Amino acid sequence: MEKLIELSKLVSKEKTKRVNIIGQEKKGNSSLTRKLYDGIIRGIITNDKEAGEFLYGPNFDQNTYVRTKYRLEEKLINSLFFINLNEPHFTDFQKNYYKCHKDAAAVKFLIGKSAREAGVALAEKTIRLAIKYEFTELILDLGRILKKHFRIFNPHKEKANFYINLVGYHKKVLDYELLAEDFREEISSQFSPSRANQAFQRDKVSKYEIILRDRIKEFSSYKLLLNYYQIASFKYRITNNHEEVIRVCQEALHYFEKVTNKNSIGPIAVFSIDILFSCVISRNYDLGNQIFKKVNQILPEGSINWFSSLEGYILLCFHTKKYLETYEIQKLATNHKKYPVLPKQYSEIWKVYNAYCHFLIENNKLTLPEKSNRPFRIGKFLNEVPQFSKDKKGINISILIIHVLFLLQRKKRDAIVERIEALKQYSYRYLIKDETLRSNCFIKMLAKMVKANFHKNATIRTTKRLHQRLRETPSATKGQSQYLEIVPYEELWDIILGILVNRAM
User: Fold this and answer.
1) pLDDT averages per 10-residue partition of the chain, 505 residues
2) Distance CA 417, CA 419 (A)
3) I need a surface site. Which of 177, 188, 305, 492 has the fewest CB within 10 A?
4) Are 415 and 454 in contact (CB under 8 A)?
């Protein structure tokens, strides 16, 4: 009861009847802040000019409007502490994350207002939840308050020692979590917004992975393991060791699937998607199918991870010649209501997949239940993917190649000759490293086809050595695993030979 009395007096003293939150305006009060809030929620207001005119008319005073805007901002921030956390869309982890942080703020407020007994009681209750959910920063904050309390204000040797050890341990955990976070951010910052195969600092990434691998043997936490496994996966992706990518990511899944009281859906999605792309590259299609079916059941539809998992699966379908399914997947993605608001690097790739689907339709490799009379406009497509035009060693190669394939299918010989000359220069300039060897080889085969005057047998004869080299060279995607040959070059070459005839085109 002492704690309750202490709290009641404090709350009364602070006069909560004057609490300044949204939704608590008096009946009949035409609150300008409420009017501004309602206008924003209803979509009537989208900028400051509209807001000022909505509240005060066309000749509104800027300073008066700014004061109203500031009052609303203050009310909204205060209202955050009154949000109902029992809504069904909140996960158990989310509920406890917000509860712990709100209660930790209350602990500091209570102790600051000399309600120490109530503050310490709430701190002990909150720190138990923080330990359960591994909120390291909160454990340190609350642990410091409690160790001081049981050392000085209310001496209790056993409790003091417990919190001294708890703070000491979690200080090291936080140090390693911050180190791992810093490593991952440094690595992530080197990614291009396009999908270029840049030469990353492999030695540095390997060094970071080794440092963290040693740390997780001594200290284990959700955040530390999350960052470690992401760095380990990246390390093996940039060395093109996709068997190791799969192994590391499966190890990560084993951990995150067990920690059901944590926010594990995101990590499960990330590592599943890494496995999916690596399965396509290493041609482990059965495992890829299993992973996609599993992760697709837990991902929120329309999320970035949902689109990424569909991307991995559409590539798997392209590689296993499930062409009708590729068309259905790209249709599902591009017709989704969230597609128009995707960042460019996520939305433009689906235009490339759509282009390959339409090429397969024109080549009769893909038959749709209902045929469209609208031909695919290659010029319009090329104008719609400017983001990837900067990606000299990545997905832009697939764009340049699909352009040539459409021209070949449509018998545009002069245009092909012009494009091949440009492709040869492009290949010489950008495709000279090991990771682009297959693309370089395929472009040389296209050039030989033109030199053979599009004659089928002559093309087969003059590209025999290159074709053999292509078959012997494994797929290589160093850097970002999302870049793949959309349709394997071997399959594209068979399609090309099917278009050619034994006479000059």
Assistant:
1) 54 53 54 85 86 89 90 81 76 90 94 93 97 96 97 96 98 96 89 47 88 91 95 90 96 91 87 95 95 94 95 96 96 95 88 95 89 80 70 73 95 91 78 70 93 95 95 66 77 96 74
2) 6
3) 188
4) no
What span, in angstroms and rounded, lies between the C-alpha atoms of 431 and 67?
A: 59
d(CA 72, CA 58): 21
Angle at 307 between CA 481 and CA 288, to 5 degrees: 55
CA distances from 360 to 250, 356, 376, 492, 495 (A): 34, 6, 11, 10, 9
H helix intervals, 22-153: 32-41, 48-56, 62-79, 92-112, 116-133, 136-148
CA distance 408 to 411: 5
How does pLDDT run across 339-369, given as a tens digit for each residue? 999 988 788 899 999 999 999 999 999 988 7
How many angstroms separate the CA atoms of 501 and 505, rounded?
8
Residue found by looking up tokens 């909120």 in the block: 135
Q: How many distinct helices (H) and strands (E) make up the chain?
A: 23, 0
pTM of the model: 0.82
Structure tokens at 172: 């090291």
